[in-house]
Amino acid sequence: MIDNRGNGTRRRVRPPAAGVALAAVPFLAILAGVRYDWWRYPTAAVIFLEPATVCFALLGLAVVGVFWVVRSYGFWKREQRLSWRMGLAPLFVVATILVFFAVQTPTDRAFDRANAEMAMLADSMLRDGTEHLGSTEIGGYEFSIVFIRDGSCVYFVDGRRSTPTEVVGWLYTANCTPNLDRFRRLKPVVENWFSFEQGT
User: Fold this and answer.
1) pLDDT tens for residues 137-180?
2) Calpha distance 87→68 (Å, rounded)
3) Which of 19, 18, 16, 14 is nearest to 2 (CA)?
4) Which residues contact 86 (CB under 8 A, 6 or more apart)?
5) Cα–Cα distance between 48 and 45 in angstroms, integer?
6) pLDDT(61) > 70
7) Do residues 147 and 92 lie in contact, with contact meaning Cβ atoms separated by under 8 Å?
8) What gap in Å lies between CA 118 and CA 121, rounded to an integer?
């Protein structure tokens, strides 16, 4: 738009608005797809494809963010004021992040449904001296193997998320203290349970 003031001509700069927020949608959708398992990667390639997908989405959001900053600064510099429309894109991104924190992943929901039966199985294995079990389904969730290590720690390996170079799952520690040197990541979930990652 052109704004004529006196003898001068001034180009009006528009603030970033809904269009910038919409530009962030595909990248936020990609991150949501990874977080909530909307698709599955081939087992052998997940170690490369999943991080590559996340990096692509974050790079896209960074580009949108830089565009928003440039447009916002240009608007403020020319108009010497702020516009409520400038807040649409950041508000949308922040709201999506809050949803990510508030809504459980399918994996977390599956664990919540199954952990009581998992504990019963772990106690049974410890009581009977069973060192390992093969493929086991508990509460609709399938584990590629369940085994005892470090004395009385019971490992439930998630076959869907594990790869040839990374083992992930849950650890039952009611009767043991885990050796922290064995894990790349060990995170408390509920009492006597940890989620774990092992690998290179």
Assistant:
1) 888 788 989 999 888 999 999 877 777 777 889 999 998 888 88
2) 10
3) 14
4) 15, 16, 17, 68, 72, 75
5) 6
6) yes
7) no
8) 5
For tokens 């992943």, what's the residue? 105
| Full 3-state SS string of the chain | CEEEECCEEEECCCCCCHHHHHHHHHHHHHHHHHHCCCCCCCCCCHHHHHHHHHHHHHHHHHHHHHHHHHHHHHHHHHHCCCCHHHHHHHHHHHHHHHHHHHCCCHHHHHHHHHHHHHHHHHHHHHHHCCCEECCEEECCEEEEEEEEECCCEEEEEECCCCECCEEEEEEECCCCCCCHHHCCEEEEEECCEEEEEEEC
Would you say 184 and 47 are in contact if contact means Cβ atoms under 8 Å apart? no
Q: Which two tokens stand for residue 169?
A: 């799952």
> Structure pTM?
0.71
The distance of Cα 72 from the centroid of its chain, to the nearest Å, equals: 29
